[in-house]
Amino acid sequence: MNILLYSPTFYESPGTQARMILLRKSLTKAGFETSILVGREKLLRKLYHYSSRRILTLRSAWKLMGKTISRQITKKNPDAVILFIDVSSSAIPYLKKHNADITVILSIEDLTPEYKEYDEETSRKFYNILIEHASEADIIITPSFTLSEKLLKLGLEAITIPIGLEPYVTLGEALSRSPPPIILHTGQLNSQKQIDTILKLAQKYKMLVHNFGKLSQLLTHPNILKYREITPEKAVSICRRAHMGLIIEYRNAYTLTRYYFHTSLLQPIIVKGRGPWLREAKLLGMTLNPIDNIDEIINKYEHYVRDQFECQKKLSIPFVHSPLINMLKKV
């Protein structure tokens, strides 16, 4: 079976990019022929990023998007396609019309009305159109149990396929990290709360920070070392020496690629913030520690790393993606 993975926001969304790459690796290991198609339509990106509050509640806009996306995909003639992000569902009717035998999987990563902070009436209009299109998918998947619960309330049944991870560090390597302790922050720096927290921690600890985000230039301190890489894989050689992972997040994100990345590096995770992602971590069996626990983690480092090691085994690919793999084998 030839499976095509499609996203119009591959380069704009590091989280979606990481998820697609991991899913492709799992599918390839399972024996499927796979490829990634990145939507390069400037029109689609303008519709989504700059005019979405007004435009994405119009059926005419969904028709335009659907025809544009499906045209690219049908040229590749795949047996199955995985469409990433909710608005990509606009292509489903046109894909089915062109090839009734194609298997269409819709992967909803988050919900545009929540991401864009729509008002109630605008959200209702968007969801009505989304449900109409998404209902035609053969399978709907999400990376989050809490997002799947939300979709069920909207009338869409989805299967949770976690983001997953590749183990980048062995237990022995993690336990042999050299002092002093280093705390790693990999997220975008777009919030003053993030800046204030990191600067406060830098008064006492060494910090390794991804130099990415509109406020990253505000982080200047002798204890802060910055790095910049395009993909998580390229950042591994720099990040693997850090002892802990730091997540500061106040958005209503359903899940975070970051806590998979820290688990792949066997770094105990310390957090500050709020959002559905906290509950999601518990459902995944992850241990998230408050910032006040840093010194305890340092003193009992082996205990916390071994806890991460057990979590790493459960969330590694291709095992974590096996429900999707098994469904595709039956097609």
Average pLDDT confidence is 94
| Name given to the CATH homologous superfamily of the largest domain | Glycogen Phosphorylase B
With helices defined by DSSP (H or I, 4 residues minimum), what is the helix count? 16
> What's the level 1 CATH class of the largest domain?
Alpha Beta
Oligomer: single chain
Give the N-to-C terminal Cα separation.
Answer: 9 Å
Tally the beta strands.
12
- Give the strand content: 15-25%
Word description of this protein:
The protein is an alpha/beta fold. The chain has 2 domains: 2-164 and 318-329, Glycogen Phosphorylase B (Rossmann fold, 3-Layer(aba) Sandwich); 171-315, Glycogen Phosphorylase B (Rossmann fold). It has helices at residues 14-29, 42-49, 52-55, 59-76, 92-98, 112-115, 120-134, 145-154, 171-175, 192-202, 232-239, 257-264, 276-284, 294-299, 301-315, 322-329, and strands at residues 2-7, 33-38, 80-84, 103-107, 139-142, 159-160, 182-185, 206-210, 224-227, 244-249, 269-273, 288-290. Strands 2-1-3-4-5-6 form a 6-stranded parallel sheet, with helices on both faces. The protein has a 6-stranded parallel sheet with strand order 9-8-7-10-11-12, sandwiched between helices. Helix 1 (14-29) links the parallel strand 1 (2-7) and strand 2. Helix 4 (59-76) crosses helix 5 (92-98). The model has no long low-confidence stretch (mean pLDDT 94).
